[in-house]
Amino acid sequence: LSLSILILTLANWQLASGQSILTAQILSQWGVLNNQTELDLSNCGLMAIAPDTFISFTQLETLRLDFNQLRLFSSDTFAPLINLRTLSLHGNPMKSIYPGTFKGLAQLETLYLSSTQLTSLLPQMFIDMPSLKYLYFKDSRISQVAETAFEGLGNIERLSLAGNEIESLEVATFHGMTKLKFLDLSQNRLT
């Protein structure tokens, strides 16, 4: 009997005592196969992800890393995930995301970055993400949004910046978002 499990939920699993970095070896020990299409690693106590962790996970379409302790990602962390459509980093204490963090995610359609400690959105944070349609920053601490933060995101249909600390936005911030249907700026400090 050969099983081919495509969707695997390991939410609430914890790393061994003293470990805080997710690696390919740990995924292998947990029984994660490289043909998985969905992987949920929410609330696993992860503090970091080794750059080569997902190198053989090219079939992955959905990755949930919600409610861990992830603060920073290298530019190579997600690059191997060439078929990823949904990435959720909801509820992690990251304070900044650098341009290139999501390099290689040309197929990504949905990105959840809600309930983080992000304070600003830097210029060109989402470069080379032509398929991105849904982007969520709800209930973070964002007070500044660079005029070119969303540059190149012409396919965005839904953008939520609700529940942040934004006081002002430049008109050009949303330039080129010709497919934008829903923009939520509620519960900010806009005047």
Architecture overview:
3% of the residues lie in helices and 17% in strands. The longest helix has 6 residues. The chain starts with 6 loop residues before the first strand and ends in a 7-residue tail after the last strand. The protein has an 8-stranded parallel β-sheet with strand order 1-3-5-6-7-9-11-12, with no helix packed on it. Strands 2-4 form a two-stranded parallel sheet. It has a two-stranded parallel ribbon with strand order 8-10. By secondary structure, it is mostly beta strands. The radius of gyration is 17 Å and the shape is globular.
What order do the helices and strands come in, and which of them pair?
Elements: E1 7-9, E2 21-22, H1 24-29, E3 38-40, E4 48-49, E5 62-64, E6 86-88, E7 110-112, E8 120-121, E9 134-136, E10 144-145, E11 158-160, E12 182-184
Biggest sheet descriptor:
8 strands, parallel
Order of helices and strands: EEHEEEEEEEEEE
Largest sheet strand order: 1-3-5-6-7-9-11-12
Assign a percent range to the helix content.
under 10%
**Annotation, overall tally of beta strands:** 12
Label the structural class.
mainly beta
Taken as a percent bin, the fraction of beta residues is 15-25%
Provide the residue-averaged pLDDT: 90
Number of helices: 1
Which parts are unreliable, with pLDDT below 50 for 5 consecutive residues or more? none
Multimeric state: single chain
Report the end-to-end length measured between terminal Cα atoms.
63 Å
Q: Measured on Cα atoms, how large is the radius of gyration? A: 17 Å
Shape by Cα distribution: globular
